[in-house]
């Protein structure tokens, strides 16, 4: 079990790892060793996640979620397979932890007195400007 929060943990059996060749530092070793890690986590079928966390994770993980509801994280920043694997798990835990935090409801506030006065003053100025435009062309001869 991989702990995410005090009350939430992920089952390691739900994670699937694929090792692929990575670009970046490593010299000739890059062409021979599959040091990059592709972590796949099926969010839609996960038994570890509560429904509300699952829904938020599906919503917030953007392009990393496939159409089937599978979260794919590719880690290739580090040179070794082991360290990239740990990095991928850490990134998954951070993503699930952010989805586990409930969204804070916005409380509607009232506009301040000064902001209401500024809004009304701006409306008066715009109205005056438009009134002046109409007066300027009222005396001009019409074309037939």
Describe this structure in words.
There is one protein chain. By secondary structure, the chain is an alpha+beta fold. The chain has a domain at about 1-100: Double Stranded RNA Binding Domain (2-Layer Sandwich), CATH 3.30.160. Helices cover about 40% and strands about 15% of the residues. The chain has three helices and five strands; from the N terminus they run ββββαβαα. It has helices at about 50-60, 80-100, 115-140; strands at about 1-5, 10, 15-20, 35-40, 70-75. Strands 3-4-5 form a three-stranded antiparallel β-sheet, covered by helices on one side. A two-stranded antiparallel ribbon has the order 1-2. The longest helix is centred in the last third of the chain and has 26 residues, at about 115-140. It starts with a strand and ends in a 6-residue tail after the last helix. The mean pLDDT is about 80.
Concise synopsis of the structure shown:
By secondary structure, the protein is α+β, with helices and mostly antiparallel strands. The protein is 39% helix and 16% strand. The protein has a domain at 2-100: Double Stranded RNA Binding Domain.
């Amino acid at each position: 079990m991989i702990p995410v929060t005090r009350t939430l943990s992920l089952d390691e059996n739900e994670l699937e790892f694929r090792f692929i060749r990575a670009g970046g530092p490593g010299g000739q070793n890059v062409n021979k060793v599959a040091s990059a890690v592709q972590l796949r986590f099926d969010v839609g079928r996960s038994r570890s996640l509560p429904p509300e966390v699952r829904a938020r994770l599906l919503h917030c993980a953007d392009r990393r979620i496939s159409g089937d509801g599978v979260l794919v994280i590719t880690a290739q920043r580090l040179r070794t397979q082991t360290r990239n694997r740990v990095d991928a798990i850490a990134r998954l835990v951070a993503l699930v932890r952010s989805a586990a935090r409930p969204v804070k409801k916005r409380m509607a506030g009232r506009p301040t007195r000064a902001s209401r006065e500024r809004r009304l003053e701006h409306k008066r100025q715009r109205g005056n400007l438009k009134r002046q435009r109409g007066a300027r062309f009222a005396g001009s001869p019409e074309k037939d």
